[in-house]
Amino acid sequence: MTQHTHLHAFAGHLASRLAPLDLFERVALAAREVAGRIVFTTSFGIEDQAVAHAIFTQRLPVEVVSLDTGRLFPETYDVWVDTERRYDVRIRAFSPERQAVEALVENQGPNGFRHSVEARQSCCFVRKVEPLARALEGASGWVTGLRADQSSARAQVAPAQFDTERALVKINPLFDWPRERVADYVHANGIPRNVLHDRGFLSIGCAPCTRAIAAGEPERAGRWWWESESKKECGLHLQGLKAPAETDTPKAPS
Ligand code: SF4
To answer: CB of 52 within 8 A of CB of 64?
Structure first.
């Protein structure tokens, strides 16, 4: 049995054990069962805040990190600070490589991501995907706040699944929670939350790429709203995303 086949089977078995449990038990079981380094990447959205609460309250051996793209809302940094204060922790930031950011801006300007899907993916690659790869280096487990009903692209989210691209087990303890349940949970436990959620921002990413949505719009309609629905992922949760094409790849200055 290859290592990948073994991990695939392990993830399937873990998924069936996680499914009947509550949130606290899910993250605790994952922390116990996944050998090696486990990383939780938070963007401080309401789902991530619920997961962070379960990890920090139980003092689980899970590294909590955030991808500081450099383009986040000021309100997101406020949640970051409130979360550190509430649980008496430090959340590690992974920032984009300085030279790559400088080359990106040189190449496409500060808001070049609006010009094409490729330009946007280049920005997401430099500011999110590459830092994520560093954050997950050597990790065996990756905890996320993904929910299956967030979008059609996320419908297949399972409690645990093998990420073939990164060769690790991805754990999604909120996979079956509807948004209302997450919101109620965060409210009931007094967990710090982003004030933008009260202003129509359901899914919160980088400031220039997120807008508030109107009642009845899909949850992720406010992300990269100028693009078609099928493109709306930044590459963090898609397998097979490669560095942007040669012509679009920001070059480090020689
Ligand atoms: Fe760049 Fe927007 Fe992607 Fe953030 S969400 S990394 S600003 S393109």
So the answer is: yes
